From TrEMBL:
<feature type="domain" description="NECAP PHear">
    <location>
        <begin position="4"/>
        <end position="156"/>
    </location>
</feature>
<dbReference type="GO" id="GO:0006897">
    <property type="term" value="P:endocytosis"/>
</dbReference>
<protein>
    <recommendedName>
        <fullName>NECAP PHear domain-containing protein</fullName>
    </recommendedName>
</protein>
<dbReference type="GO" id="GO:0030125">
    <property type="term" value="C:clathrin vesicle coat"/>
</dbReference>
<dbReference type="Pfam" id="PF07933">
    <property type="entry name" value="DUF1681"/>
</dbReference>
<dbReference type="InterPro" id="IPR012466">
    <property type="entry name" value="NECAP_PHear"/>
</dbReference>
<dbReference type="InterPro" id="IPR011993">
    <property type="entry name" value="PH-like_dom_sf"/>
</dbReference>
Length: 175
């Protein structure tokens, strides 16, 4: 699914608590286009691309276990985030990222969480540890009865309080 986003020039963080998108003015919008989350093995990349040409505007790399330093939700909205963009030469910048709809921002969060879970499971497989979330992943097991196979069920008759019925082979019939 392709998500449409807007990118904002943001002021430096004003408090140690986090960013607030309410401080970004509409005039601080610098780009709009599509967002793709690309996950390959342990690498996760958030790509901001031109919707027509596919040209890359910016990319945010999310190193394993460092999502909170690369993608930070803002304090005052569920639709906005701050991305840490790096140039590969050690320089970085922070940009604001906004989604038009809350469900798109939710899908973005889910994609990042799914990548983290995948990486954790793969790491646990390599080290032989059990999954941190307690879910054991195994191939599906077929529990269907095979042709001709039966399951014996023993049913004890229930005692009756009234004498108006008749018992027959474990079944009780009313008169």
């Amino acid at each position: 699914r392709v998500l449409k986003v807007a990118v904002y020039k943001i002021p430096p963080r004003s408090t140690s608590g986090g960013y607030k998108c309410g401080e970004w003015l509409q005039s601080d919008k610098i780009w709009s286009g599509r967002l793709r989350v690309v996950s390959c093995k342990e690498r996760c990349e958030i790509r901001l691309e031109d919707p027509n040409s596919g040209d890359l505007f910016a990319a945010c790399f999310v190193p394993r276990g460092q999502r909170e330093t690369s993608v930070e939700p803002v304090l005052d909205s569920s639709r906005y985030f701050v991305l840490k963009i790096e140039d590969g030469a050690g320089k970085h910048a922070f940009i604001g990222l906004g989604f038009a709809e809350r469900n798109e921002a939710f899908d973005f969060n889910v994609a990042l969480s799914d990548h983290e879970k995948y990486v954790r499971r793969e790491h646990d497989k390599e080290t032989g540890e059990s999954s941190a979330d307690g879910i054991d992943i195994h191939p599906a097991v077929n529990h269907r009865l095979k042709e001709g196979e039966t399951i014996p069920i023993n049913v004890k008759p229930k005692p009756t309080s009234s004498g108006t019925g008749m018992r027959f082979g474990g079944f009780f019939f009313l008169k």
